[in-house]
Write the structure tokens for this entry.
Amino acid sequence: MVTIQNLHKKFKNLHVLKGITTSIEKGEVVVVIGPSGSGKSTFLRCLNFLEQPTGGEIYFDGVLIDPAKNILQVRQEMGMVFQRFNLFPHIKVIDNITLAPKTVRNLSADEARARALALLDKVGLADKANSYPDQLSGGQQQRVAIARALAMRPKMMLFDEPTSALDPEMIGEVLDVMKDLAKEGMTMAVVTHEMGFAREVGDRVLFLDEGLLLEENTPSELFSNPQHARTREFLSKVL
Amino acid sequence: MDFRWDLIWRSLPLLLQGAWLTIQLTSISVFFGILVGTIAGMLRLSKGPMRYLAGAYVDFIRGTPLLVQIFIIYYGFPALIQNPVPPYVAAIIALSLNCGAYVAEIVRSGIQSIEKGQTEAALSLGLTPNKAMRYIILPQAFRRIIPPLGNEFIALLKDSSLVSVIALEELVRRAQVIIGRTFRPFELWLAVALIFLVMTFTISRLVNYVERRLKVGD
Ligand SMILES: Nc1ncnc2c1ncn2[C@@H]1O[C@H](COP(=O)(O)OP(=O)(O)O)[C@@H](O)[C@H]1O
Ligand SMILES: [Mg+2]
């Protein structure tokens, strides 16, 4: 579904991604791990061009992503969930979810609303449609954020540390929603420190270190038999 | 030392007529100022060459006295175009342009105060940058802009007294005329100050009210 070839990203003199080549298949759940500052967020944000890569190519469904040509369409097909939720605080939960389908996909208000209510039900928040985001707990906000992304019916979802800003007791409810999504066959790229999640639903784990894709493997292989010293060192801290 | 209350009473109708003109000039100028300022403020944040023009406008207005701006519009331009500009029109143009520059800065910083994550979330859903601005950024910036806009309204109301120099019979000018007749500056200026105070107090109450009404969900 996504093919990444020799992806580079520099911020001025800071070389954050140093040539990453990999691919994400349809229906696959790819978990990205690595030390803080290794470039995980940047990698994810390059996929939907929130950061403009400074080198390399990314293909989505076989088509080269080109910010001048097709970035809007690509983003409609690639939902994103952020560490800090980034819900729109000035509108209600229901409007957070219907906004993009209405303004981007030109869905009628009724259709968008029906879709949003179904998604709220799916993430267990049917009763929160008319709340404002800041009336919800962190875990609830993140579930709304997932529903908001899903309302565009994306082919793929990007998650950037979706549980890192949550109190421990709320992590489970968000991971459960993500697990359901994975079971339904959603293609997912997930940056996370939740190794249990990686092991349970990950098809493949990428270990990023200082902007390099040091190794990638199935969770069980990577966790039990890491090839690089850096990987072993990192895993010893988080497992 | 006697204090002529009766003089204040008798001057009040004339002073209030002046105050009414002050309110008119200020309200109309704030309206155009918000229009001009919103455009200029957004241009300053845009990528094109227009941002330099908007920047020059803001710098010029903020770096020169309003009094000089009034003179340029009332005396300068008419000389240039060989056509007089009525004082009322000149006053509104000068006050609007002045207000616009300050509003531009308010709008710019209001927009910039919205966290980057908001734009990113909107873009990640496939919104164009324009739609992200319209549906996500501007509505949130607007709420934050209300209090400083209210301050600007009050500042302009007070500064509008400067148009008395082009013989517009607003509040200050009226007082000057009455003092010329009665030689009672203390009573008259005190009355003028109190009238200004009532006007500015009313505006700040109104702004507070609007602010509270908009607070929902922020
Ligand atoms: N917008 C930016 N401008 C400059 N440097 C950045 C920017 N975003 C990230 N970086 C830097 O890039 C490196 C990788 O960051 P990031 O991708 O967020 O790492 P991770 O998500 O793995 O913690 C860090 O050193 C970070 O400071
Ligand atoms: Mg990160």
Observations:
- Residues A 11, 14, 16, 34, 36-42 surround adenosine-5'-diphosphate (ligand 1) (CB under 6 Å).
- The longest strand of chain A covers residues 14-24.
